[in-house]
User: Fold these one by one.
Assistant:
Number 1:
Amino acid sequence: MSGAALHPTLTPAAEEAAAQPAFQRMPAEGPQTPRICLGAGANTDAAGMRRLKQIGVNAVLMGGPKIPWDEAELRSRVSDSVRVHLRADVPVGAYLSGGLDSSLVAALAADNGQAGLMAFNGRFPIGAAYDESSYARELADDRGLDLHISDITVDDFIREINKVIYHLDYPVAGPGAFPQFMVSQAARQHRKVVLGGQGGDELFGGYARYLIAYLEQCLMAAIDGTLNNGNFVVSYESILPNLPTLQRYKPMLQDFWRDGLFDTMDRRYFRLVSRGEDRQSAVRWDLLGAYSPFETFRAIYYADNIEGESYFDRMTHFDFKTLLPALLQVEDRMSMAHGLESRLPFLDHPIVELAATIPADIKFEGGRLKRVLVAAFKDVLPSRIVHRTDKMGFPTPLNEWAKGPAREFVSDVLSSQAALGREFVDNRRVLASLDSETSFGRGFWGLFSLELWQQAYHDRTHEFQALKAELRRAV
């Protein structure tokens, strides 16, 4: 990989972070399986120790000399990447959630001669909060796409969730792997290769938590009377028109401001990305040693290649080094579980290099999410998609199902003799806490996926050992 915006760094802490997306240790009753995070290479030294080499991004300093960025150049690089990723010996399809990133990729693919491009969307037919298919349908009608919408049900969850955990190989903090598994399953019935929009949020600042973080800083500056001191990416006045984006994030805001209001920026962002407190009462943290999730976080948040005081650069760099690799391993495993190749045009290195050269006060000016991407492609997509303020990723009704139609299944998993005998987790408390879990809370899912993983792998150790011995004898 070339370009002055990228450089290789040895970052053991980043590997640990990528393996633990929520930055809380997921206790396991057995040895940890070595993993290499995506976007990294590994080699072995003379002593047999594995060393990790991961790609880092050099951020351009906010307030320093402006590096001119050209909307036409960004448009050209993204379009070129989509065109290159369409090269295949078989027809190529596309994931289409209805958000900006996947819609842009699908639209550009259609514009590159893919007439009747087959696109795939998943929804939960239990209410508008879990159904974004109307946006996908709008793009499909605009571009003549062949849209396939999968209705994902609680019966699918009960039938398939153990397969999801099996293909993941280890527990994950978020439930998004399940719907991704289902959509990939549907896509594989028609296509062997699909394009996706992963990477856009991390490269161009698309997460609502960036807006939440800056909103708190603006409030503190307004109270302290320091709004006009220094060079700020966002002002109190400029952020106000963008706040409707947070309408569906009120529960997250309530939790975020419940504790630590106006604390240091590193601690505040750690609170935004950490899910640990949701599990405090059920996990026996005293048995897990002196591991500090916050210190692991700080080692990446204060990386040497991010200079100055730009909050935005530090947040997006942290997500690029940790959250993105975690999302990519889920993307890869859930698609390949069905023999489906997933390609991600946004992560082509010319796009990453260009994004890294755009200063924070341009990329996130006024608190506008994905400002530069919208500016470059606003005429390519339907206005309703470009200007939507209700995007929430892939919301999953796991907690509603667990409290209702899947309650018996969940109870059986958490009440087995093995589940009740775990050393590090009190699954009685996990089950008891279910009724107080919010619709989009992840505390329950994290420990439920851990238990499913333990039953799929740890509890079957003797089977795997017997199989290993059998294979050795065969050789």
Number 2:
Amino acid sequence: MNYFSLYSNCFVVDGYRRSCIYDLTRRRHYFVPLDLSKLLKVHENNELYEDLQDLYFENRKVIQEYIEFLTDKELCFYTKKPSLYPKLSLKEEVYYKISNIILEYSSKIDLCKLKDIINYSNTGELELRFMKEIEIIEVKKILDCFKKTKLSSIKIIIPYIEGITKDKLFKIKKIYPKITQFVFFNSPAEEYNYVDPYNQIKLAFITSGIELFDNRVMPMHFTINVNYYQEAIMCNPYYYKKLFVNNQNNIVDSLCDQNIIESLDNISVDNLDAFFESNKTLNSLWYSKKDNTVICRDCEYKYMCVDPRVPAQRSNSLFFFKTNYQCPYNPYIAKWKGQDGWISVEQWRAENPNWEEQAIQNRTQQQKEPHTV
């Protein structure tokens, strides 16, 4: 007797209009109808394939097509003992106090203190932002400060430098192997996401300014993997365990809003733990997960979305975004701004006053997804 089951690394996420299957191992996603999501959550591991077709006899052909799609994409398999294949555990083992530091560099930054914080916190990633033009030789001096740290990755965002070439960047990479990406903004030509597998580095040349990286929701930044999914279930993965330091040596809520939380002068390895535990602003940002955020909680992208907008909390405990910039995706019609038929969320809700009843049903269905935590 054969039962059908999703692979342990595949999870179904419901939006308002459609659902999405996340394949966390292959880092892919597939859009599927809400009806298929409901079918999977109600019957997975419980019904024989043959019984399922009998149960939905009038839609037997559709059921067959659904099963063929899932098996063709290697999302589903048959087994006689589904209990032997439990869902992937989503309990995250956090071994760091700070996962990322995003630094807006200036001469005011205390690099020695920052180095101590990185090593104490087991920080893995550093994003170095240079807002003004700077010579490569100066960049190298700054990178020298981080050679003997626990960092595994350094991303550099910098204004375009005249005469810079890929070969020159590859040579820098050999000297500083922790560099994983260079992004040059205000470039005369566009070349986004060039990957050199031999040198293990990403290069991007963008014609726009650095605002591309702040306060914008962009599909090219979406992330599908186990770690990101784990964080998105429990917290806000863009802000969780991140430290933003502006060019005035202040810890801020984000480099977009620049609301000062504390001066880096007042932080040391001796009081860092107490600072994290007691700071309400940081804790609010860290745990502003998409499931508790208006609009986002009705979106099928919510566990892959990289959203740099700063959330605020309402009296009903739901989060929202104060920025005038609105996400270009409308989950209630499953369309991006620029696609035929797109309208804003506000207009759609005004035209569909009973929308929330369906949204509540979908959220209830989403809770049936077997997240093992």
